[in-house]
Write a structure and sequence with these properties.
The complex is a heterodimer of chains A (about 160) and B (about 150). Chain A is α/β, with parallel strands linked by helices. Chain A has helices at about 20-35, 90-100, 125-135; strands spanning about 40-45, 65-70, 75-80, 85, 115-120, 140, 145, 150-155.
Chain lengths: ~160, ~150
């Protein structure tokens, strides 16, 4: 007579999950606490050796002078190019001028092409300086950025008003 | 004689599988989005926005981050200084580069200035850096996609 063996295969092997869940929750809390939503940041690169321009200087290479005037509160009141053309406080007009000047194309080499020297009133708020740099260095077309002027530098700082 | 039969107390066990799945997904989400490169950012600084400010494809070489507040305070790592008193801190950085066989001209000064800072103050900061020998600057702005 054949013997019958009772099989124990149906018993499930149970893992102890408590400690793993503890660690996972700690990780989750860490990531939630350190998570910070912030906008992406980008840079405008300026090469400015002391007493020099932003690249190789030669005597025929006269930079475009961009004068930014402000009132006492640091608000932009006037954008003047080469002491002749005034654009009020409209950066789009300044960009149109730069587009006209460059033909809408950046030079193949960053060291070539026109150079812009920014001369600003001491009190002018930095956001306007970045606005001016944005207007002269390029324009965004969809996801693509079209480069215009690569070489920018600052004039000597003016005295506080 | 009454016999009290000890009944085995069974713990009720819920199915944890779906919860663990979800928690793992949350962890992966936060791990992917966490950005340790923001450690140089100072929360007091509200950067100006620019449509051209796009994150660089490659990080700048030998970066030195200067956070400039609108009242003229400069935060450089854990050090705090004013623009006129920044030179000793910059000199330390220049000396550290020299010890590595590099020079100040190899470093990139990243200027994170508050949008309301006087532009002249930023110019003075650049001038201070130039006096120590730094010549590559990156003016940082917040990306504005309209």
């Amino acid at each position: 007579m054949a013997m019958k063996f009772k099989s124990n295969i149906s018993d499930k092997a149970e893992m102890q999950l408590t400690s793993m869940i503890d660690v996972i929750f700690l990780l989750l809390i860490f990531f939630v606490m350190t998570f910070k939503i912030s906008a992406q940041e980008g840079d405008f690169n300026v090469k400015m050796p002391i007493g020099g321009g932003s690249g190789t200087m030669d005597t025929t290479d006269i930079p475009i002078k961009l004068r930014l005037r402000s009132n006492a509160d640091g608000e932009l009141i006037d954008i003047v190019v080469d002491d002749t053309r005034s654009f009020g406080n409209d950066f789009s007009q300044l960009r149109a001028f730069i587009l006209q000047l460059t033909g809408g194309n950046a030079p193949p080499d960053a060291a070539d092409g026109p150079e812009v020297e920014i001369d600003l009133d001491y009190n002018l708020r930095y956001e306007y300086v970045i606005g001016a740099i944005t207007a002269i260095t390029g324009q965004r077309q969809g996801d693509k950025i079209e480069r215009l002027v690569e070489r920018i530098k600052f004039a000597a700082p003016r005295k506080p008003q | 004689m009454a016999v009290i039969r000890k009944s085995e107390v069974k713990m009720s066990e819920g199915d944890m599988t779906s919860m663990i799945d979800m928690v793992f997904q949350l962890i992966i989400f936060f791990m992917v989005l966490i950005n340790f490169s923001q450690e140089d950012q100072n929360e007091k600084i509200k950067l100006p926005s620019s449509e051209l400010a796009k994150p660089a494809d490659a990080p700048l070489e030998h970066p030195i981050v200067l956070n400039l507040d609108f009242n003229g305070t400069v935060y450089m790592g854990s050090e705090i200084a004013t623009v006129p008193g920044l030179r000793p801190l910059l000199q330390v950085e220049a000396d550290a580069l020299k010890a590595k066989g590099l020079s100040a001209t190899d470093a990139n000064i990243i200027i994170r200035s508050h949008q309301n800072t006087a532009g002249g103050l930023v110019q003075e900061l650049i001038k201070k850096c130039q006096e120590v020998g730094f010549e590559k600057f990156a003016l940082r702005a917040r990306e504005d996609r309209g």
